[in-house]
């Protein structure tokens, strides 16, 4: 790919190869498992399951009117650790994120304890991802595209999302998922632990047959106290990369820091799974009260996405009540080195929009088309090729871009 930009390699070479080493260790462990389930460690009533989500992204922008300085090779996520079950009643997650490489700070990705001793109920406390939104609740390795839609990322980063300090109670079953959480800031660098918010999610499955499943839901979050840096007023920024990131130094969508009294987001989600076809979409409204000299100014942002995916080879995605989201496609038969002889293949398309313009705030309006083809030669190894065509509208300017991104991922 001649368009790939690989600037500043010398400066990040050490961290890059450290990331590759972690990914290589994970891949070696995966191969030892003969391309199937990674072995667990059982010590009486204690079960230890190794965890890894290691990704290597390669790509760039063959055509763009937007500045896209950055690198073209990035170890986007290097999350490794373990999940432990004790007496079938307690679950402990201990996962460290060694990436992204380059430029990304390492941090604790998950450090939580869950009590599952009461049927259909789960109580969780620590650092984890509270239940919010359909696409947000898909594990990173299970998402249809390499990155989530911008509106999903922007809303979940307000009070939910990964590495969030929180306490949550949830109830789930074959036809429902209900969760409510009290959240603070995120762990690690750029820590905003003084934030206070509530997050909830209600999901129902009114239809569930062998060939057809219908999912509907509603999520909400409200920040009562925004994060506050020393000597500064409470503030939040709404921003995202263009649904892919190969080391970009700037975000296309960006409101900048907004001094806030409070803010929240509310959204509807829906999905229909019919045989090998999965249709899904979400729509969000963001409400924010900005502090100004004369009082408070109300701001309103919005966005939505719709996507379709089809499992060409393999067993299609399955709904999971614990997360109220869909898993990756799997093999139809007993796993082999090439999973049914050819592997699992999925094709997908998506359109998304995010509008961060309100009042005097002009964070831009992004519209993007994406297409992806994904192959799983074995259940723990994923290869994705993705194309994106989008535009950013500002006050007096419209900028367009095209991008191509490939990803290799090891997940177990």
TrEMBL record:
The keyword Signal applies. It holds the Pfam family Porin_O_P. Residues 1-32 form the signal peptide. InterPro entries: Porin_dom_sf (IPR023614), Porin_O/P (IPR010870). Keywords: Signal. This is Porin O/P phosphate-selective. It comes from Acetobacter indonesiensis.
């Amino acid at each position: 790919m001649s368009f790939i930009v690989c600037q500043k390699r010398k400066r990040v070479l050490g961290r890059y190869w450290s990331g590759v080493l972690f990914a290589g260790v994970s891949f070696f462990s995966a191969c030892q498992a003969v391309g199937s389930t990674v072995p667990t460690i059982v010590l009486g009533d204690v079960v230890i399951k190794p965890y890894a989500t290691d990704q290597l992204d390669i790509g760039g922008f063959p055509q763009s009117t937007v500045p896209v300085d950055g690198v073209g090779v990035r170890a986007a996520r290097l999350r490794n650790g373990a999940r432990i079950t004790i007496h079938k009643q307690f679950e402990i997650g201990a996962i460290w994120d060694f990436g992204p490489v380059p430029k990304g700070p390492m941090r604790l990705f998950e450090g939580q304890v869950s009590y599952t001793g009461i049927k259909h109920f789960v109580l969780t406390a620590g650092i984890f991802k509270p239940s919010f939104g359909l696409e947000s609740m898909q594990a990173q390795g299970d998402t249809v595209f390499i990155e989530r839609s911008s509106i999903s990322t922007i809303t979940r980063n307000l009070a939910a999302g990964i590495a969030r300090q929180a306490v949550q109670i949830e109830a789930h079953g074959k036809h429902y998922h209900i969760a409510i959480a009290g959240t603070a800031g995120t762990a690690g660098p750029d820590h905003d632990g003084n934030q206070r918010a509530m997050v909830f999610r209600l999901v129902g499955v009114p239809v569930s047959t062998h060939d057809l499943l219908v999912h509907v839901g509603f999520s909400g979050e409200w920040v009562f106290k925004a994060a506050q840096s020393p000597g500064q007023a409470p503030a939040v920024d709404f921003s995202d990369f263009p649904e892919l990131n190969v080391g970009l130094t700037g975000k296309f969508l960006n409101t900048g820091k907004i001094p806030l009294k409070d803010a929240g987001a509310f959204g509807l989600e829906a999905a229909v799974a019919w045989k090998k076809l999965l249709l899904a979409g979400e729509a969000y409204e963001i409400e924010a009260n900005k502090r100004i000299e004369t009082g408070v100014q109300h701001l309103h942002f919005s966005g939505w996405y719709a996507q379709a995916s089809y499992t060409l080879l393999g067993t299609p995605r399955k709904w999971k009540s614990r997360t109220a989201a869909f898993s990756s496609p799997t093999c139809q038969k007993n796993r082999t080195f090439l999973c049914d002889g050819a592997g699992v293949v999925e094709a997908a398309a998506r359109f998304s929009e995010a509008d961060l313009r309100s009042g005097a705030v002009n964070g831009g309006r992004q519209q993007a088309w994406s297409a992806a083809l994904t192959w799983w030669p074995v259940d723990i190894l994923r290869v994705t090729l993705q194309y994106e065509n989008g535009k950013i509208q500002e006050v007096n300017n419209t900028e367009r871009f095209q991008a191509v991104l490939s990803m290799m991922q090891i997940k177990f």
